[in-house]
């Protein structure tokens, strides 16, 4: 039999429903083949892992209905409800009676009616490390009259640009959704925040956006400045943050146009708390930083770098163009909160950034005027903001 879902114990292939029907407790059902893989199944056997295996699972009605205990949907992978014309009218995951201790971990959930709907009372629920966005209504919907007992863990998620609230709790009972990100440094209830209903505890929340300030001595964040050729200038790597305990970054510059005047300077509280990652080549900075104790960090400057506008490629009268490039890849640029809770870097391709700091995806330098003679000073324009990429 062929299909897009493989039981890793039996090596049998089937559609998702067939694989779940044949599963025993402890089995893993893994997505295989080309994306999108079909869903639209009900889990009736307890203690089964559905491994998306980096695949995109297409719309079902819904993708998964959970009717047994200890079901896990694990990423990386995407649950995409797009029908070709509109968002699905079903939730990505529907949790019914019996769906105790459901776990959704490391999954992107987009373009459904709701991301996850809890329709009946259950014991324990775990939603961690998920990017839940662009759904018609709520990211997480808890229906009226529902009681979630046991242990509820909803943390390390990014709820963003959902049509309704990021978390909509109609149960009448309090729901803990602390240590999540909501698309705005001010949390879910201001600005671009994804919103929460009554009976949702959301504070403390998290946030991180990484960017460069090319003139840190001037008030405010400067994404453009002019400097003369052979003039040295500082660049600050900043984070707009909330409740952070760690941050990692990787950015590059072109040594053919810029000379780095080391060493770099880490700013409190990060002095002595940052370590180089591997042995990056010339033109690359890669560091991971984390706090061991003390209060959480609410953003500011992580490190300062001093450059001189010169290099072997600067010959003649120009103009020349070069780039600061902050990696958007999660393995390179990431953040964390106390206890190792994941914090999505909001402007690293997870929908649009919340502020103007990342409207320009790279830091560029271009000679804005050509000198009248080879001995005339060169004027440069610098623009900075993190690299973003569609996901």
How would you characterize the overall build of this protein?
The protein folds into 2 domains: about 5-205; about 210-385, Immunoglobulin-like (Sandwich). It contains 1 helix and 35 strands. It has one helix at about 15-20; strands at about 5, 15, 30, 40-45, 50, 55, 65, 70-75, 80, 95, 100-105, 110, 115-120, 120-130, 130-135, 140, 150-155, 160, 165-170, 175, 200, 205-215, 225-230, 230-240, 245-250, 260, 265, 275, 285-290, 300-310, 320-325, 335, 340-345, 365-370, 380-385. Strands 23, 25, 28, 29, 31, 32, 33, 34 and 35 form a 9-stranded antiparallel sheet that branches. A hairpin with a 5-residue loop joins β1 and β2. The chain is elongated. The model is unreliable at about 360-390 (pLDDT under 50).
Write out key terms for the chains shown.
391 residues, mainly beta, Immunoglobulin-like, 2 domains, eight-stranded mixed beta sheet, 1 helix, 2% helix, disordered C terminus
Compute the gyration radius: what is it?
24 Å
Share in β-strands: 35-45%
Describe the main β-sheet briefly. 9 strands, antiparallel
Mean pLDDT: 89
Helical proportion, percent range: under 10%
**Strand segment count:** 35
Form type? elongated
* Cα end-to-end separation: 33 Å
Overall tally of structural domains: 2
Q: Spans of 5+ residues with little confidence (pLDDT < 50)?
A: 358-391
Number of helices: 1
SS content category: mainly beta
């Amino acid at each position: 039999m062929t299909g897009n879902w493989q039981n890793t114990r039996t090596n049998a292939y089937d559609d998702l429903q067939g694989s779940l029907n044949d599963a025993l407790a402890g089995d893993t059902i893994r997505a295989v083949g080309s994306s999108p893989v079909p869903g639209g199944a009900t889990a009736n056997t307890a203690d089964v892992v559905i491994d998306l295996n980096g695949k995109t699972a297409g719309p079902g009605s819904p993708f998964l209905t959970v009717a047994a205990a200890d079901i896990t949907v694990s990423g990386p992978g995407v649950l995409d409800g797009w029908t070709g014309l509109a968002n699905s009218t079903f939730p990505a995951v529907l949790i019914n009676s019996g769906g105790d201790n459901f776990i959704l971990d490391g999954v992107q959930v987009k373009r459904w009616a709701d991301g996850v709907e809890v329709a009946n009372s259950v014991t324990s629920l775990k939603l961690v490390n998920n990017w839940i966005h662009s759904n018609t209504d709520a990211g997480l919907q808890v229906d009226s009259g529902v009681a979630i007992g046991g242990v509820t863990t909803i943390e390390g998620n990014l709820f963003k640009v959902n049509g309704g609230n990021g978390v909509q709790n109609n149960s009448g009972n309090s729901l803990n959704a602390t240590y999540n990100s909501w698309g705005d440094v001010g949390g879910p209830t201001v600005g671009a925040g994804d919103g929460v209903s009554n009976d949702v505890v959301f504070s403390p929340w998290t946030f991180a956006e990484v960017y460069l300030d090319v003139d840190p001595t001037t008030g405010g964040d400067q994404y453009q400045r002019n400097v003369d050729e052979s003039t040295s200038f500082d660049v600050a790597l900043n984070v707009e943050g909330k409740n952070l305990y760690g941050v990692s970054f990787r950015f590059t510059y072109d040594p053919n146009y810029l000379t780095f005047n080391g060493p770099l300077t880490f700013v409190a509280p990060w002095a002595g708390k940052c370590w180089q990652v591997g042995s990056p080549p010339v033109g690359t900075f890669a560091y991971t930083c984390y706090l061991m104790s003390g209060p959480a960090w609410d953003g500011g400057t992580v490190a300062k770098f001093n450059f001189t506008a010169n290099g072997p490629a600067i010959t003649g009268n120009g103009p020349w163009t070069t780039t600061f490039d902050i990696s958007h890849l999660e393995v390179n640029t990431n953040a964390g909160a106390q206890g190792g809770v994941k914090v999505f870097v909001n402007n690293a391709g997870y929908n649009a950034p919340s502020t103007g700091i990342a409207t320009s995806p790279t830091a560029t330098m271009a000679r804005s005027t050509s000198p009248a003679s080879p001995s005339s000073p060169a004027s440069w324009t610098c623009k900075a903001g993190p690299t973003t990429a569609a996901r």
